[in-house]
């Protein structure tokens, strides 16, 4: 009975933490976001892992992303995603097929261009701890959606304390999936034209175009 009471109290304290907007977490997030806002664009390589112990799923891929403002180009897991801020192209090289759809920035999806500023609207945030790894100090911050209908219930950010740089993040969804992104290299000098973020069918001979707009 005492153990049950202790667990309930701990859970209550954790939940209460999210009833407020942690000022320490906000300071960390603001400093990180300001750094990325200063960049005209950047390119990063990362590892991606999908883990679901209930379904015995453990998959890993290497990926690459280029970001310029709201635009991004993502290559991961056998697909390439182009987003110019209004249209999304999802290209599948293996079958030479591209799906085209409208991009809805307010849809709630966590995209590479949103992860650095998502905390500003629709999220509670809480500083958890500092972690020491290989001589570096990382600050761990949780984001929790204010909308209980959101498909995921938590995003955990791992931020390099000295560089104010996002080293990785983990997304927890309600079906038990955990999506982990770990940045392995970062180029803050990438400067690309807007057409880099648009799919060009002429560069893919015989591509099948499926327009879902």
What does this structure look like?
With 213 residues, the chain is mainly beta. It contains two helices and twelve strands, in the order H-H-E-E-E-E-E-E-E-E-E-E-E-E.
| Strand arrangement across the biggest beta sheet | 7-8-9-10-11-1-2-3-4-5-6-12
> Ranges with pLDDT <50 over ≥5 residues?
1-19
Basic shape = globular
β-strand amount: over 45%
Sheet/helix structural class: mainly beta
Number of helices: 2
Largest sheet report: 12 strands, mixed
Mean of all residue-level pLDDT scores = 87
Order of helices and strands: HHEEEEEEEEEEEE
Rg over alpha carbons = 19 Å
Q: Determine the N-to-C terminus distance.
A: 57 Å
DSSP strand count: 12
- Helical fraction: 10-25%
Provide the fold topology.
Blueprint lengths: L1 H16 L5 H15 L4 E11 L4 E12 L2 E6 L2 E5 L3 E6 L4 E6 L20 E11 L2 E10 L6 E9 L4 E9 L4 E10 L20 E4 L2
Parallel strand pairs: 6-12
Antiparallel strand pairs: 1-2, 1-11, 2-3, 3-4, 4-5, 5-6, 7-8, 8-9, 9-10, 10-11
Write a brief caption for the model.
With 213 residues, this protein is mainly beta. It is 15% helix and 46% strand.
Tags for this model:
213 residues; mainly beta; twelve-stranded mixed sheet; 2 helices; globular; disordered N terminus
């Amino acid at each position: 009975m005492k153990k049950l009471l202790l667990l309930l109290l701990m859970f209550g304290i954790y939940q209460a933490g999210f009833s407020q907007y942690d000022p320490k977490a906000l300071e960390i997030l603001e400093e990180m976001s300001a750094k990325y806002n200063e960049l005209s664009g950047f390119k990063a390589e990362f590892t991606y892992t999908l883990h679901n112990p209930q379904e015995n799923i453990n998959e890993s891929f290497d990926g690459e992303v280029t970001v310029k403002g709201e635009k991004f180009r993502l290559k991961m897991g056998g697909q390439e995603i182009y987003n110019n801020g209004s249209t999304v192209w999802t290209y599948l090289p293996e079958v030479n097929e591209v799906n085209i759809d409208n991009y809805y920035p307010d849809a709630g999806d966590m995209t590479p261009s949103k992860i650095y500023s998502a905390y500003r609207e629709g999220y509670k945030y809480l500083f958890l701890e500092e972690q020491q790894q290989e001589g570096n100090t990382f600050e761990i911050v949780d984001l929790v959606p204010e909308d209980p209908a959101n498909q995921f219930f938590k995003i955990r950010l791992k931020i390099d304390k000295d560089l104010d740089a996002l080293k990785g993040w983990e997304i927890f969804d309600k079906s038990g999936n955990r999506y982990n992104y770990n940045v392995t290299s970062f180029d803050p000098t990438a400067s690309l034209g807007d057409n880099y973020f648009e799919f060009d069918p002429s560069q893919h001979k015989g591509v099948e175009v499926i327009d879902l707009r």
